[in-house]
Amino acid sequence: MNSKLHNKVINNVDLNNLITETNSIPIGVDYGNEILKVKTTNHEIGIANLIAAGRNRRKLTADKAHPINLLDVDIVSKGKNLGRWFVGGMAFKYSHSRLLNREEGGNKADYPYLIHSILTAIAYCLYNPNNPQSSHNIILGTGLSAEEFWQREEHRTLLYNRLVGEHTIKFHNPIFNNAQTKIHIKDIVVMPESSAAALNYITTDTGKQNDFAYSEIKNSLNVIVDIGGFTTDVAVLYDGDFEDSFGFDSGVAEPMNLIAESLLKDYNIDVNRQQVGIAIRKSKGVIRTRQGDVVDINQIVDEYLQEFTINITSKLFKTLRINDIKKNQINKVYFVGGGALSLQKYLIQNITDLDFQVLNEPLMANVRGYYIAARDKGIQIEKPAVYDEDDIYM
């Protein structure tokens, strides 16, 4: 797989010196099954990928939560009124029993509520309290799982057609000062997941080739593995260039669901898989329930994640063999994605005969690659604020 975009980066073209004809803002969106990530020129955010039908709340006092957890919006997409929606932490707290989140087995491009979350997250990133009524032209970079990208080519067109065009997002919570954001998505770059992470790895913040990363992958075969919620996606780099990408249907949502089910059945603790994932990644296996109780779930986590890691690494190397890549040919495996973050210590325990690394900030690897793809239109970049997953639900 050798695209013009990839070769530009590898050949060290300075993207900041290119000229854009659109004056559009580059934005990257990674529609993760657990967390939706967005990167703009100045910001990186993550929002719990949950939505629910919105409603008027009978509040006597102002909300004290962070604005990212108060996303109560009306959405009009290309002239069609999509209605009122709670998104992210807002949906989790105020419509817990009516949550809509994508389940395993379905394709991403045709998921009915995909655009609701994406448009809301983009509008939140673009919100300016000094200019609550705003309008923006956007070049969007985003992606599909490797298999959906390659096997369902029509889904690239479907995703493009659903998102390109004019959209209006109105914020209801008073904290946003009656904000209304108009978004005109002028163009979209769609990439396979994991390939975007690879692009990010070999590119600096200024759009130039990352010489250190490139020296590690030059003259050898390397693999970037994105462990997501529902899929695991693989990008193959040979001698510093993109060679192939593929994947399989298995992701960290599987053990997270099992852990959540076990907690409910055995301990009467009602949490969802997203909370389990955050407890593992950020809270050292300690979870806070909606009732305010603090529970250590490390023993249960170890049981399920150890077994899952054995299974997924077996599937990974089997998939590589099917694609004519033997383990002894691989110089190094780089893991990214929220799944890699959750499984890091189990990967160390189970992969003993191959050099591998979980890249820094693996949760944001794909969205940064999507941003680079959008920025390849010629828009400049500034170093973003650091994204932190703390308090993603409230």
Your description of this structure?
The chain is an alpha+beta fold. It folds into 3 domains: 168 residues, ATPase, nucleotide binding domain (Nucleotidyltransferase, domain 5, 2-Layer Sandwich), CATH 3.30.420; 108 residues, ATPase, nucleotide binding domain (Nucleotidyltransferase, domain 5); 48 residues, no CATH class. The strands form 3 sheets. Strands 3-2-1-7-9-8-5-6-4 form a 9-stranded mixed sheet. A 5-stranded mixed sheet has the order 12-11-10-15-16, with helices on both faces. The protein has a two-stranded antiparallel ribbon with strand order 13-14. Helix 6 packs across helix 12 and helix 10 crosses helix 11. The longest helix has 25 residues. The protein is globular and about 65 Å long.
